[in-house]
Design a protein that fits this description.
By secondary structure, the protein is α/β, with parallel strands linked by helices. The protein contains 11 helices and 14 strands. The structure holds nicotinamide-adenine-dinucleotide (NAD).
């Protein structure tokens, strides 16, 4: 009898989303895991079906499966807020569609592991950090308003004890699971003493329960400098929403491309796996998008779903592929199309099994 399928929801996204989803499914399928992919409509497709970019039916479908591969979604500046209608008819308002997915599913931490690779990461090939970005609060709650006639605007930065403790706890547990050595809190508590100050205190409260780790904290501006000058200085990083967003893109740039930076959004019931990058509308439809960040997000999914052997096989295949420097997409300095890169990766994974 064959194994029960690993059921995965798929959000195809837009921009380069459908291209990198196709590639990711092909590479993950080459592990011979028995997958069942369930496509869930979002954005334009959900509007067509349900009249809304993230309808209650969509949220309900996503909640039915533990794992979801999510491609990026375009959010244009000034597009306005995303409103989610709840089953009881009430409405929740979020600053963007991506934010709405995370908050509707109760995803509380965005894990962004960023590793350098021989062949494409230059001086940063030894970089290996995992950023735990809190994703339920901070300035991204989207509570902002204008004052007067274009005279000023203000936004609320929310930090709660419960969310700060939760992300710190997740960071330390991740460090235990992944056999890491150091956990660093990145913040700006010298200026934002109330909000980041609370975040930092919560971090040290949790840290006290994990005496086996080296523990410290660094201001976000210094952290940006230090990761460039001394990349090995960081291991696991725990940080509020906005700093995590920016710091992880910086780290991705150091290792060679946003196309190498995966991510996982975690809650107790549902996890979505998505690249750190956006929908790259500038290259959408050209067939040159680098799918590796989404494939590496799929590797995180395999690890969380206890397919360790297959996750290692894909990870090794990617490392070997990058080392050979063949079939690289333009963002990595090559001229290959997404499909050519995908075919080479499928071959590589098969040879690892
Ligand atoms: P972006 O990450 O989409 O693109 C930044 C640059 O990196 C572009 O030059 C792009 O071509 C390149 N790039 C990104 N991913 C790539 C890949 N896989 N392969 C090759 N090149 C790649 O950032 P942006 O331009 O600021 O945002 C574009 C859209 O994506 C916006 O609407 C934004 O709101 C949205 N976005 C979505 C998410 C998400 O869904 N989680 C995250 C960030 C941005």
């Amino acid at each position: 009898m064959s194994d029960p399928p690993l059921i995965v929801s798929v959000l195809k996204g837009n921009g380069i989303g459908p291209e990198i989803i196709k590639s990711t499914i092909a590479v993950l399928e080459s592990t011979c895991i028995n997958f069942e992919w369930r496509e869930v409509p979002i954005a334009e497709e959900s509007i067509k079906l349900y009249g809304h970019p993230i309808a209650p039916e969509v949220v309900a479908q996503l909640r039915q499966t533990k794992h979801c591969i999510k491609a990026p979604l375009i959010v244009k500046p000034g597009q306005g807020k995303t409103v989610c209608v709840q089953p009881d008819g009430s409405q929740s308002t979020y600053p963007s569609l991506n934010n709405a997915v995370r908050r509707e599913l109760g995803l509380f931490v965005n894990v962004r592991p960023i590793r350098g690779y021989t062949g494409v990461s230059g001086a940063y090939e030894d970089l290996d950090i995992a950023i735990m970005r809190e994703v339920t609060e901070d300035v991204y709650i989207g509570h902002e308003h204008g004052i007067g006639n274009d005279l000023a605007a203000e936004a609320i930065k929310l930090t709660t004890r419960s969310a700060s403790l939760r992300v710190a706890k997740y960071g330390f547990e991740y460090a235990v699971r992944m056999k890491r050595e150091r956990v660093t809190c990145v913040h700006k508590a010298n200026v934002l003493g109330m909000t980041d100050g609370l975040f930092l205190r919560c971090f040290y409260e949790v840290a006290a329960q994990y005496p086996q780790f080296k523990v410290d904290d660094v201001m976000i501006d210094a952290a940006c400098y230090l990761i460039v000058k001394d990349p090995k200085r960081f291991d696991v990083v725990v940080t509020p929403n906005q700093y995590g967003d920016i710091f992880s893109d910086l780290a991705a740039g150091l290792v060679g491309s946003l196309g190498l930076a995966p991510g996982a959004n975690i809650s107790d019931d549902v996890c979505t796996y998505e690249a750190s990058h956006g929908a790259a509308p500038d290259i959408a439809g050209l067939g040159i998008a680098n799918p590796l960040a989404l494939i590496l997000s799929g590797v995180e999914m395999l690890r969380n779903a206890a397919y360790q052997k297959q996750a290692d096989a894909v990870q090794r295949a990617i490392a070997e592929f990058l080392q050979k420097k063949q079939y690289l997409t333009p963002d990595l300095g090559g001229i290959a199309k997404t499909e050519e890169m995908t075919a080479a990766l499928v071959q590589g994974v098969r040879s690892q099994l």
